[in-house]
Amino acid sequence: MTVSGCCSNVLVCGGAGYIGSHMVRALVEHGYVPIIFDNLSTGHAESVGDVDLVRGDLLDRQALRRLFAEHSFDAVMHFSAKSLVGESMTDPGIYFVNNVVGTINLLEAMREAGVSRLVFSSSAAVFGNPLTARIAEDHPRQPVNPYGRSKLMIEQALRDYANAYGMRSVSLRYFNAAGADEAGDIGESHKPETHLIPNVLRAALGTGPELKIFGDDYDTPDGTCVRDYIHVADLCDAHLRALSYMQLKPGAHAFNLGNGNGFSVKQVVEAAWRVTGRDVPHSMAPRRPGDPAWLVADSTLAERELGWKPSFTDIDAIIDSAWRWHQKPRY
Ligand code: UDP
């Protein structure tokens, strides 16, 4: 795709994390100059190559002021967040402090510095339990866990910042990010790992424990939770388009990003077996608190407004991309 050159210097908060590090590569490939701000709590300095990395925390307002005083940014992409549904249920405080207070600190620093373009990593978790098979932007937002509530609070704040201060923003609501860079040298690596596809592949490889399937008594065809897996490269493509979009469109916008196809936990295990040719040792476990049964995107609005269309539409291809990364030696 071609992106019109609009915002050359881009601050990438959380640029050492899973999605952020893929984004940094995509920005460089498209001629932008990213600068990363990351506290390295979950990110990896090794995954950012020779891109400038400022180590700091969004809760440190002085550090943010210094960052904006020392650099001139045309736009900000904000990936830094706590993002585990289960953890948010048992320790909501860190979600509201990190995701809400941290982001408001960022918005205030942007405002003081006169930076008025933000692409915000939001989530399907803002919707809660779906009322329709596919979730479009006009679906009611009734999050069922503190993680989703923290993302929704920021979406609401962004509308107020648009109205009062003219801040332009695009909130991108990821469904389930998955897959890895084509070259296979950066990918998804969390400690502890809680996400389904990495856990499935680690079980298949024998580098992780057997997979626990959290709940098989949901109201879904096979009883396990259904999710819409979207490749990280397609998410990055949407962010690039969002940068261009904000040039033309004032206001606070939000788009749902998914493939529009749902796969159950059991279907993901079967796909991993097809892709890897290995058994995935697994057993049933109780439901994980906070998990909605079914989350599948309707991304028609992103297609229409951003001209975005996912290129990885096949679950086997998405898992294959993650598999190539998982087989490599890891940092
Ligand atoms: N899941 C599972 N076992 C795992 C990890 C996840 O059964 O080890 C399930 C989880 O309950 C959810 C789905 O897989 O229904 C996707 O979970 P993940 O943590 O990957 O993403 P989330 O939907 O929470 O963002």
From TrEMBL:
InterPro entries in the cross-refs: Epimerase_deHydtase, NAD(P)-bd_dom_sf, UDP_G4E
Top class in the EC scheme: isomerase
GO biological process, one term: galactose catabolic process via UDP-galactose, Leloir pathway
UniProt-listed Enzyme Commission number(s): 5.1.3.2
Stretches assigned to the NAD-dependent epimerase/dehydratase domain: 10-258
Cofactor: NAD(+)
GO molecular function, one term: UDP-glucose 4-epimerase activity
UniProt KW keywords: Carbohydrate metabolism, Isomerase, NAD
Family: Belongs to the NAD(P)-dependent epimerase/dehydratase family.
Name of the protein described by the UniProt record: UDP-glucose 4-epimerase
Species assigned in the record: Nitratidesulfovibrio vulgaris (strain ATCC 29579 / DSM 644 / CCUG 34227 / NCIMB 8303 / VKM B-1760 / Hildenborough) (Desulfovibrio vulgaris)
